[in-house]
Amino acid sequence: MTDSTLPTPDARCDTIKVGIVSISDRASSGTYEDKGLPALRDWLGHALYNPIEYVERLIPDEQATISQALIELADAGCALVLTTGGTGPAKRDVTPEATLAVAHKEMPGFGEQMRQVSLKFVPTAILSRQVAVIRDECLIINLPGQPKSIQETLGGLKDAEDKQVVDGIFAAVPYCIDLIGGPYIETRDAFCKGWRPKTALKSKRV
Predict the structure, then answer these.
(1) For the whole model, what pTM was predicted?
(2) Mean pLDDT in the chain?
(3) For residue 192, how far is the Cα from the chain centroid?
(4) Which spans in the chain are helix H?
(5) Torsion angle, CA of 144/150/154/159, rounded to 10 degrees?
(6) Between helices 108-118 and 147-155, what is the axis angle to 10°?
(7) Per-residue pLDDT tens for 25-63?
(8) Of 16, 83, 90, which Cα lies nearest the Cα of 56?
(9) Distance in angstroms (rounded) separating the CA atoms of residues 130 and 196
(10) What is residue 125's DSSP assignment?
(11) Do residues 158 and 164 lie in contact, with contact meaning Cβ atoms separated by under 8 Å?
(12) Which range, of 15-19, 23-27, 107-111, 139-143, averages the lowest pLDDT?
């Protein structure tokens, strides 16, 4: 079902296959409603001109299960996989370990920037252990578990005049996916501006 509140994708843009994974013992067992997957769909739907084909997973905090899901999503042709949940220091938080286990390359800058953004709001952001990796032609990024934190880390911070103060991590995602051979991602700049060098610009909307 299409969310009528989201802007209409531009059919001239590449369709992008995105894996979204919510990792929670309680949500996956039905104890409470999952909020991670809707938050990811909402943010991406507002951020991108591209038509998006989602491949979704709602799974428990089991390292082998998480790793297997990430492998399946990369093998299915997802250019981007976003996970939410399981990145803290608690015993059941194993998302980073599961992600690193399937990595071909680690991309530490994403985790570093997420913690910098979150530290603007809470001092406990230093407890977050999000990582990002590349597997084949797929970029996999661990995000926080709370919808508000998902929005903040992806989009960054703006001041009262709507000027970007701190970049969120998604500013670097389109160019990263260019570099690993993925589809050309086009952002709605008023919502979240992706950055590329001028030599890499090739919009299909002009």
Answers:
(1) 0.95
(2) 94
(3) 13
(4) 25-28, 36-47, 63-75, 95-100, 108-118, 147-155, 173-179
(5) -120
(6) 120
(7) 888 888 889 999 999 999 999 999 999 999 999 999 999
(8) 83
(9) 24
(10) G
(11) yes
(12) 23-27
